[in-house]
Amino acid sequence: MRGIAGRCAAALLVFLLAVMMAACTRPELHRQEAYVFGTRVDLTVYGESRELADEAMAAVLREFDRLHRTYHAWEPSELTTLNAAIARGEIATVSGELATMLTDAQRLSELGNSLFNPAMGALIEMWGFHADEFVPRRPDPAALQAVLEASPRMSDLVITGNQVGSRNPAVKLDLGGYAKGYALDRAVAILRSKGIENALINIGGNVMALGKKGDTPWRLGLQHPREPQPLATLPLYDGEAIGTSGDYQRYFELDGKRYSHLLDPRSGGPADATQSLTVLITPREGAGTLSDAASKPPFIAGDNWREYTRRYGIEHALRVAADGHIEVTRELRGRLQFPSGSAPVTVVD
After folding, report:
1. What are the backbone angles phi and psi of residue 241, rounded to the nearest 5°?
2. Which one, 2, 17, 64, 137, has least CB within 10 Å?
3. Are the beta carbons of 252 and 259 closer than 8 angstroms?
4. Dist. CA 119–CA 155, nearest whole Å
5. Which of 99-113, 129-143, 275-289 has the lowest mean pLDDT?
6. Which of 22-36, 105-119, 246-260 has the lowest mean pLDDT?
7. What is the secondary structure of 127-179 as a DSSP string?
8. Please, are residues 210 and 60 in contact by the beta-carbon 8 Å criterion?
9. Confidence of residue 133 (pLDDT cuts 50, 70, 90)
């Protein structure tokens, strides 16, 4: 009997060890959160050891912090140093990274007919968005008109190697509509260099997928611009990025009117024809950067939004108009799941 009992105990021990080993090797989700770029950052890694995941995510967050400090639009940074030189009419020597970013931003601005315009930092400052806390106020009309007449554009920059100057001293650079997307691309590069194959990076609604979550793609919700719930959900596949511009992210209200940080460089005031505009970028080089920059022009363009998504070669896009009406491209509609009872959706080509 002792022999049988001993064999049973041994078998039970082997079974328990097998269960414990399976539990130890079961793929897990590892997450880290932080607050960078004025928004919440959420990193998720799937299927790796805790040690490797933590190491890789820590490296990403260090890079985010570096980018935030280096290219801050109003606290002392390499970008503010360049802006001061431009205001004095001088040529500045910048890092190779910043010169490359500015050259790329010039290209993206031209594609968007200058509706994506990082050169208009003066307007953003006038509206009070160069601050962590917004004080409801309208700019001085005369000062605003002076900036509009000066018409600062990215095309005013003269970039020769690491030398940057401007033909227009009114240029004041603000990379707030570019840096989060650039950070997504940097995050993917870092994660891959660390051997991470499956991850999701979320920087305040700008999201990029690496690999998948087990046997299924990553899945995320698109924020409803007026309600605390998802507007719709969709799968996000390896190398794809989502970018959303919305009037609910950075804004203030004054006399019953909402004023968002998404300014129309043609009028100098907040664009108000759209509540939110989402673009999905299929896998390509610089997908993260494009997801950030390319959501701005169609948001600002209002009813003419589809022309601007086409300018960037984007076929997956969704717009919530000022009246709440939802428009979505045919390509993206097939990916979306809307909750029951949601507002009607118009499909556009």
Report:
1. -135, 145
2. 2
3. yes
4. 9
5. 129-143
6. 22-36
7. TT-SSSSPPP-PPPHHHHHHHHHH---GGGEEEETTEEEES-TT-B---TTTH
8. no
9. confident
* More reliable by pLDDT, 14 or 345: 345
What does the block give as tokens for 76?
């002392």
Condensed to tens digits (0 to 9), the pLDDT of residues 203-251 reads: 999 999 999 999 999 999 999 999 999 999 999 999 999 999 999 989 9
Q: Is 230 helix (H, G, I), strand (E, B) or coil?
A: strand
242 membership: H or E segment, kind and range: strand 241-246
Show Cβ contacts of residue 76 under 8 Å, excluding neighbours closer than 6 positions: none
End-to-end CA distance of the chain, in Å?
77
Mapped onto helix, strand or coil, the DSSP state of residue 29 is strand
Residue with tokens 């002392």: 76
Rg (CA), the chain: 24
List pLDDT tens digits, range 167-200: 999 999 999 999 999 999 999 999 999 999 999 9
